[in-house]
Each structure stands twice: as structure tokens, then as C-alpha cells.
Amino acid sequence: MQFGWVCVFVFGLRAMGDFKYVGLFKRVKQTRFATYDTFLFTPLCLWLCFTFYCTLIYS
Q1: Burial class (CB in 10 A: 0-12, 13-18, 19+), 44
Q2: Cα–Cα distance measured from residue 52 to residue 54, given in angstroms and rounded to the nearest whole number
Q3: Which conformational region is residue 19 in: left (phi greater than 0), alpha (psi within -120 to 50 degrees), or beta?
């Protein structure tokens, strides 16, 4: 159970990002990594956070 909450927290923080290079609130958006982050990495982290959260709540 504890590991699941750690995963929710870690993936949620990763999805929010560091407010400069990664996450939903990034400011640097013209790099190749930023494009991948917008369309692949951040949605993946949001989905993983949501999946772990639902698993913990409904199990």
C-alpha cells in the first residue's frame, strides 16, 4: 500500500514538472525533448498517477 502512494506522488509531481523544462507548466517549449514531453511523457505520467490512485482507492 505504501509503495502505491509513493508512485502516485512521484508520477503526479513529474506530471506537474519543475516549471522550466518538464511537465504541464514548463516554460522551455521549443526543443525536441519538450515536444516529446508534451505529447508523450507528461500524459504517460498523468495516466500512471491516475491508474495507481484508482487501484489504491478501489482495492
Answers
A1: middle
A2: 6
A3: left
